[in-house]
Amino acid sequence: MSTIKIAKxxxxxxxxxxxxxxxxxxxxxxxxxxxxxxxxxxxxxSYQDPQFETFGAIRVLNEDRVAPKSGFPTHTxxxxxxxxxxxSGELTHRDSMMVASSTGxxxxxxYRIKRGDIQFTTGGSGIxxxxxxxHDADTVHFLQIxxxxxxxxxxxxxxxxxxxxxxxxxxxxxIISPLRAGKRASPAQEEAAVPAVEGTIPIHADLLLGAxxxxxxxxxxxxxxxxxxxxxxxxxxxxxxxxxxxxxxxxVRLPDGTVLGEGDGAFVSNVNAGDALKIESVxxxxxxxxxxxxx
Length: 295
Fold this sequence. Notes:
The structure is a single chain. The protein is mostly beta strands. Helix content is about 5%, strand content about 45%. It has helices at about 165-170, 185-190, and strands at about 20-25, 30, 35-40, 60-65, 70-75, 80-90, 90-95, 110-115, 115-120, 125-135, 140-145, 155-160, 175-180, 200-205, 205-215, 220-225, 235-240, 250-255, 260, 265-270, 275-280, 285-295. The strands form four sheets. A seven-stranded mixed β-sheet has the order 1-20-17-22-15-13-14. Strand 13 (about 175-180), helix 2 and strand 14 form a beta-alpha-beta unit.
């Protein structure tokens, strides 16, 4: 489990082999810069903890709120797979490749992502971009996630995807899956960017991103490994995160009985492809749950 220390929990039902440890919201790194209120699950910027460096391929999980008319000025990324999951508000992206999606009104300059959108960047050999909240009044709330790629020096590229509320309410939706061609992909296969799971964003890592909105009093199950979508099938690592979206009214219960509140997460290790992680919504409000499933 990389550098993270965990203890085995007594597991009910069929997941007695799994290990689970909660990562409480109040134990995360935190900084409030006025324009940016950010929580760090892993070491980031001024928050450094050797126990929380990586978990599988997962390197960064920041829960950010950016005030109106502010944001991250132009900066460079290299050799990281970076994605933003928008929870509320909107975020405007401008980059050195001048790449835009259909959500932009000025396609040669920028694109704007909003709730339900996921924007993905392969930093590769290097790319510069800015991310700003250009709205006059509304704060943007989003998750910024970084994964370590299986190869360095990749060609920078972007992808974006929109997932509907209805799809997430029907169960867990897989949003990101490994590039089907794998580590030895040819330039043509890189350009084609075919994911292991149809309709998802391809990533250069043995990693899946999934999400579900679980109504209070109901449950949803995440299938570890995405039903054959991954290379490494044994000893997978799943991080479960419950964003701070409903004023503390969302709660979920994991298979070992651990209850997570908003901002909490959990490291789940020693699970295998095909295992079902049942997550129950036990709060007053519905729970939007994000999972990262890594080798």
